[in-house]
């Protein structure tokens, strides 16, 4: 296994002034080559800190990729530090000078002395051309490690990686084949899922590893196979996946880049069925999830944002006595909301939400996070009580996920 470390340099990253998207993209591309990223680090524009990070990589990585700190200004230290670190010196590189001169010439701008300094590179590096900017990338083979330094501007870095670095790495390292399979689940927490599939996990082949990737309301399972034969790895992972479905199939809704709302939408489309929504506590978020999918007009009819009791009564037909006796956050109310929106729109199904999202409004009987959802269909109406208790944003999102999952299970 080839181990890689990615280092981003720049105070702006530590201050949160820019979002570091480089390391995520780089690690994904390395993974495709069978190179495992073992650590990501961010460091400011300080010589001691940068050298300290470099020292830490010794014995831990076979490949170090550095982004940032290659500009022409005084706070850009990477190039000089790399030269010193490897006992080299900065020298004028003819091709780099030609590139930076041409860069300014075609833009009708003067090449200043500070811009000319971009053509000075460590004498021991291999020059890597930057066709999108003025700062070349550098390749070092030092201390038993491959070191690569690139500009931090994302579009420049990606162009250099795709055209120059990735092909060069593929030729340099003899890497194993890595195959991933992402299986997405909903309706079960990470700890409960781990108990459910414990025996299956313990009996996975040695060359296939499992990772849990939980997010709000969902858990992704990533199977990763290591070997030399990609076709065989895919077959082995498929066998593991088949046995997993027998145990946890009811919770599996999709794979790879599938989203719950798109999966549910495709189920509706395939059965030529439609959906409408009546939302209170989710405030339109459920409808947004449906309509965020291109082509959702095939199955999404519309909805009512029934935040007030008057709208619940006047548009959805909720009985005033129901609200008086049980309140808006109740099984009795949510049932009539779901039935009402289905009848009003003529859709196959009606989904409804009513609850206390917070942070205020809770009572002893109905604390913050108490949510009722309902699904009305041609033959019956299903209700479900959720006890969440998180932040307002989380309560809205979790209620929406629960609604989509309720509909998914009903259709299936």
From TrEMBL:
It holds the Pfam family CinA. Gene3D superfamilies: 3.30.70.2860, CinA-like, MoaB/Mog-like domain. This is CinA-like protein. Residues 5-172 form the MoaB/Mog domain. InterPro entries: CinA, CinA-like_C, CinA_C, CinA_KH, Competence-induced_CinA, MoaB/Mog-like_dom_sf, MoaB/Mog_dom. Belongs to the CinA family.
